[in-house]
Amino acid sequence: MTEFDNGDISSTSQQRVTVLQQGNYLRSQMTTLRAFETTTAAFCNAFEHIATQLITAALDLAPTEDVDVLTPTGRTFHGVRQVKPVCGVSILRAGASFEHVLRKAYDGPLSFGKVLIQRDEKTSLPTYLYSNLPKNIGSSTILILEPMLATGGSVSKAIEILKEAGVSEENMIFVNLLAAKKGVDTVLMRFPSLRLVTAAVDDELTASNHIAPGLGDFGDRFYGTTD
Fold it and tell me: Which among 189, 194, 136, 148 has a CA at the least distance from the CA of 169?
């Protein structure tokens, strides 16, 4: 893992961002995602490989407790285990793409919530439409699931909804595939205790506030609804 380096935010904020190590394997999978000619099947396959790394990195940030186990050699191993409930909150529709990977990765108490937020393509402003969250969500570690972070409007709205439901920022981890620097700045400045895990950070936004170079509309490409 590497820390996000951006002079526009404080060093404390930089420490709350984890960017996956940019090795050849990750870069090859990201190349597949970014390529215009990639088929839906290949796109979904590449995303699952990267999502597995992202979810693993996010779960590394979840609290653990010490536990001693006896090994087959009769020796004691001083380990840890993750026992606190985890709740994956998907920002629909694209965020649901992470759910299968999270189910496979975490074998402790696990639940899921949904938040539907629609971005106005003309104004880039988010509109909250619907949410369905577990009743005991305040006692869980929350993984906010959203592949794309452009301006930060949608995830900011989702965080507000979670805070109203009794979740503290300290218990939130934002799991993201691709972010724009502007979105990272916006979200971290607004929510100073939030942690972010991402696979890559792009420098620019287009005039229509899409990430550049980016990878297009993630939801359309993942669900095969492109024209």
Answer: 194
- Domain total of the chain: 1
Does 5 qualify as catalytic in the annotation?
no
| CATH number, residue 142 | 3.40.50.2020
Question: Is 93 one of the annotated active-site residues of the chain?
Answer: no
141 is catalytic: no
Q: What is the pTM of this model?
A: 0.89
Query: Could you confirm whether 221 is annotated as catalytic?
Result: no
Q: Which residue among 34, 56, 190, 220 is the active-site one?
A: 220
Of the residues 2, 64, 76, 123, only one is catalytic, namely 123
pLDDT tens across 191-217, in order? 999 999 999 999 989 988 889 999 999
Which stretches within the chain are classed as H helix?
A: 11-14, 24-34, 40-59, 99-105, 153-164, 181-190, 218-223
